[in-house]
Specification:
Length: about 200
Amino acid sequence: MELLTRVEQHFTASLEAKQRTLEIMGPRIVQAAEWLAEGLRQGHKILVCGNGGSAADAQHFAAELVNRFEMERPGLAAIALTTDSSALTSIANDYAFEQVFARQVRALGRPGDLLLAISTSGHSPNVLAAMSAARELGMITVMLTGRDGGYMAHQLGENALEIRISATATARIQEVHILVIHCLCDLVDQILFGGKREVCA
């Protein structure tokens, strides 16, 4: 019974983190989706980066756009900067691990493109470097963070928006990140293609 209690505690903590984040960040999630959709509408692309579980989230988001989320529609331009092992290892070897995303941003990014930067702590040096590169190029940045937003929260500006998860545990932050990612995918589809599909329970 003790193990079941732990499971119940995980579910309760996850639900509470999601509810708190919705109450505080709901409008920002909508704004982020509007930025992403408008960039795609104008022919720009979305670059996505993160480490560890956030790297998986970056790939998940890019896949949902390039293939599809829940409605049939044309593929959308998104690239996860976490997937090219040759680029990642050569950049880390020749320069520094801190540059693995920034160098790709400088090579692939153009003014008006968007960066989705994901970090549970907000302190990831390579994600921060990617944000700096994006800012230099005139890109728009959407950040998914947690806790107090970390160093990433200090890089807010006219073309940057932070969605901060109301939780401190990494697992809880990651769980809400994936929900936010699904919300962004759904809203982008709604904005660009006007799908009528209801949210499935």
